[in-house]
Amino acid sequence: MHMSMKRMSRVFACAAAAVLLSFVLASCGGDGQQKSPAQLNREYMASVNTISAEAADSLSSFNAAVSEGDLAAMRLSASDAAKKLEKISEMTAPEPLAQVHEEYKAGVNDLTAALSEYIEAYAALQSSADAAAASKGSTQTSSRNQAPAPTVDTETFASQVANIQARYDSGMAHLAKADSMVAELAGGEAPAKDEASEAQGEQPAEEQPQE
């Protein structure tokens, strides 16, 4: 399953850029002691952008692990990405960006859940494939009363991947909504709708277990 993390990072970057450009002038000329609302907004979005860039590296590693069928690497990179993304949920947003923050949190929750669910589904598929291979390779002295050989349920896996893709799309939709909200707050135009439509239209690749 390709998680298109470049798009996720781009969504965060667009939102951050909108706030930074909107509030850079307003934040000048402060008294140097108490941060202005504009400065707080800018710092919040800068932190979100930094965290998302760090998480994108881990998620890129996750995609590579999926391509290679490396379950251990999937677990490691997914765990690392989840820890980084969780930093966004743990942040405290300035009041003007409170609703934006809720959308970011919802997006992060869906994305991390999608990662976890994919790993669970792939692990189950890999386990059934290993069992089938072991049964096929074993020597039987008699076929009488032999138990049926385990089979690989690829149809169930495909169904699970479709559900996981839907959760991922939901996460991307939350991030795109947050991006639009930030653009509106900054007085700019909402981002093009093709970001969300691309996420909705992307189909996962069904990974097969490696023997």
TrEMBL record:
Per UniProt, the keywords (alphabetical) are: Signal
**Superkingdom as given in the UniProt entry:** Bacteria
Cite the residue spans of the region called Disordered: 185-211
What does UniProt give as the signal peptide span?
1-26
Could you tell me what this protein is called? Uncharacterized protein
Q: Which organism is it from?
A: Slackia faecicanis
